[in-house]
Design goal:
Blueprint lengths: L7 E5 L4 H5 L1 H8 L4 E5 L9 H15 L4 E2 L1 H5 L8 H20 L6 E5 L8 H16 L7 E6 L2 H6 L17 E4 L4 H9 L9 H8 L5 E8 L2
Helix pairs in contact: 3-8, 5-6
Length: about 220
């Protein structure tokens, strides 16, 4: 790895993904380094994309994140419609962001995204995770140091409504590294609450339930050092 400052990029499919899935660890890095975000869909499933983007910016401010790259909005990638036909363009877009950061002399060192199962099983999440993993492992430079892929604990999985709209696949969380987010959990909860348009259809109830969980996020961490 080249000698460069640590810098993070949170790679999500939708507005509120980062807040729910990996914002505890992201906020820890953001306390000492720049962390930006990229969105790979327009988050417009309920025809409120602009509102959701404003909520995402508010959540990022809570977490201490800096810049947002709305790739999905710019490229017309629709919420709920990501598939393999988008894969190549998504890889190119992510590489373009990483190239641009290197050209400015401030390359990204840490990528945060979903685990291979998409964390909650959402197909959009799984595609994004696959793209992030491919770029991390195949990019020919050595500025990238770590890929953080978040997984859902058995305890959290048990709290989800059984009628949730996608199948949440089981994972062996023993293969994941626990990250204590006691110091940033208040920011994580506040970031979730910033997405007020999403606190409906059982989401508010799930938000109340997750506050009973230990302040831990679980990651598969891949290193290129």
């Amino acid at each position: 790895m080249k000698n460069c400052e640590q810098r993070g990029l949170a790679i999500s499919a939708h507005c509120d993904d980062c807040a729910w899935a990996f914002s505890g660890a992201v906020a820890q890095l953001a306390a000492r380094a720049q962390v930006d975000g990229v969105l790979f869909t327009d988050s417009d499933y309920e025809k409120n994309g602009p509102l959701r983007h404003s909520e995402e910016l508010a959540a990022m401010a809570v977490l201490g994140m800096r810049d947002l790259y709305p790739v999905g909005q710019d490229r017309g990638f629709q919420d709920g419609q990501l598939c393999l036909s988008h894969y190549g363009q998504m890889v190119m877009e992510l590489n373009r962001l990483l190239d641009r950061a290197e050209e400015t002399g401030r390359p990204y060192t840490d990528l945060y995204t979903f685990g291979p199962d998409g964390y909650s099983g959402h197909p959009d999440h799984a595609i994004v995770a696959n793209v992030a993993g491919f770029v991390f492992h195949h990019r020919p430079n050595n500025n990238l140091a770590r890929l953080w892929m978040v997984g859902m604990s058995e305890e959290e999985r048990a709290l989800w409504d059984p009628n949730y709209f996608v199948f949440i696949p089981p994972v062996n969380i023993k293969d994941y590294i626990p990250v204590d987010i006691t110091d940033t959990r208040p920011k994580k909860l506040a970031a979730i609450q910033a997405h007020t348009s999403q606190l409906h259809n059982g989401t508010a109830e799930h938000f109340a339930r997750i506050q009973t969980l230990p302040p831990i996020e679980y990651y598969k961490v891949y290193n290129r050092i």
